[in-house]
Design brief:
This is Sulfate adenylyltransferase subunit 2. The protein has about 280 residues and is α/β, with parallel strands linked by helices. The radius of gyration is 18 Å and the shape is globular. About 30% of the residues lie in helices and about 15% in strands. The strands form two sheets. The protein has a six-stranded mixed beta sheet with strand order 3-2-1-4-6-5, with helices on both faces. A four-stranded antiparallel beta sheet has the order 8-7-9-10, with no helix packed on it. A hairpin with a 2-residue loop joins strand 7 and strand 8. Helix 2 crosses helix 7 and helix 7 runs antiparallel to helix 8. The chain contains ten helices and ten strands.
Length: about 280
């Protein structure tokens, strides 16, 4: 992954606001030398506010060119269509694929892990995407003995997941060891929330209350960050790394399974999105 061939081929560090992306982009042991890759960040206005603001400082520290792909701008430009019902996470698909095509990226590094969700569990470290940006889980390349095949045709690209075999606990251990700065939203804090579908959601103008729902202030933290209308938090008093690591070590359900509503639409919700070109 650090080879000159990969760097010269137009590889890009694909960075959203997720914890794994902070680990992949922020540590010394995962990515190559300073300035080896550009960086891309996906953004939309329904992001949780305290999860924003880390991409630009990190880009400056790593010496990379930051390319922000905005869902709102993609809607204005007619690249994706907002029908008022489609979650922002799905609108990110067209936004991402357009950015990859415009910039000519042939590889995009992400922070996905196999223990997060069953669709990611069967995805390769080098995940091939066809000329339409789509993933075919039935046509993946073997990766015996950690040997990776990065050959692609014109218009195709790779998604590369160097943290595939890590766990959530591995990520937190690495963050502590490397002293990586992460958004405060991952630590316990006071927040006005309401319960829906067994999860706690943030009070927001984008989250209108339904009958019977009430807002209370609780001490919570986020294990994963995404569209605030679909991303829940959990009650926690883990306000430092040691407490978070202790909490994660005792958990028996992944962060996506516990707090991501977009993965609960169907048994194959994540796989369906990934087939279309999702992160």
């Amino acid at each position: 992954m650090r080879s000159r061939r990969v760097r010269e081929a137009g590889a890009d560090v694909l960075r959203r606001q997720g914890l794994d992306r902070h680990a992949a982009a922020g540590g010394e042991g995962v990515l190559p030398r300073q300035g080896a890759f550009p960086g891309a960040a996906g953004r939309h206005r329904l992001r949780l506010p305290r999860g924003l603001g880390h991409a630009r400082p990190l880009g400056r520290r790593l010496g990379v060119r930051l390319h922000v792909a905005s869902v709102e701008q993609a809607i204005k430009d007619g690249i994706v269509v907002d029908d008022g019902r489609t979650p922002r996470n799905r609108l990110q698909i067209g936004t991402l694929l357009n950015a990859i095509e415009e910039e000519g990226y042939t590889a995009a590094f992400g922070g996905g892990r196999r223990d997060e969700e069953k669709a990611r569990a069967k995805e390769r470290v080098y995940s091939h995407r066809d000329e339409f940006g789509q993933w075919d889980p039935k046509n993946q390349r073997p990766e015996l003995w950690s040997l990776y095949n990065g050959r692609i045709h014109e218009g195709e690209h790779m998604r590369v997941f160097p943290l595939s075999n890590w766990t959530e606990l591995d990520v937190w251990d690495y963050i502590r060891r490397e002293a990586i700065d992460i958004p405060s939203i991952y630590y316990a804090h006071q927040r006005r929330v309401f319960e829906r579908g067994g999860m706690l959601f943030t009070e927001s103008e984008f989250n209108p209350l339904r009958d019977g729902e009430t807002v209370t202030e609780r001490t919570v933290r986020f294990r994963t960050v995404g569209d605030l209308t679909l991303t829940g938090c959990l009650e926690s008093d883990a306000d430092d790394l040691d407490k978070i690591i202790e909490e994660v070590a005792a958990s028996r359900i992944t962060e996506r399974g516990a707090t991501r509503g977009d993965d609960k639409f169907s048994e194959a919700a994540m796989e369906d999105r990934k087939k279309e070109g999702y992160f």
